[in-house]
Write a structure and sequence with these properties.
The chain is mostly helical. It has one domain: VKOR domain (de novo design (two linked rop proteins)). Helices cover 79% and strands 3% of the residues. The protein is elongated and about 45 Å long. The two termini are 14 Å apart. The N terminus is likely disordered.
Amino acid sequence: MKNSDKLLTKSSKANKWYIPLIAILSFGGFVDASYLTISHFKGASLFCNLSTGCDQVTTSAYSTILGVPVAMLGLFFYLFTFILVVAYFDTKKDFLFKIILVLSALSFCFSLWFVGVMAFVIGAWCQYCLVSAVLSTTIFVASLFRYRLGRTEG
């Protein structure tokens, strides 16, 4: 009986911290990616106060995949992640978190790739892109911890 109490406490802690954290991070990522996507379609320069390469990065050949802006792909990732978290709040179905884990792992890999492209190919930095990379990485780490904690419940 004591083991099941420990597991319930562990699960409650996981849901208490990781789920709201992922919701907040995905909302922040959605706002960031929305700004980048809107700027892309308007053809507007980005307001960059921490770096000088935002426009260089966001207008490079690497800023689209098959004609779709990378920022828009990020926007969909963050929106879908947020929807999945809200659905989890409502249903408590763990398969939703498995989907978040897989999507955030893909997003993390894309983030690594794009940070590498900024550093070694373009030679310029976009502060909004870096914010997105940090947010998607944090979502991945949080969902990985949440998933591992859920697996220990057995």
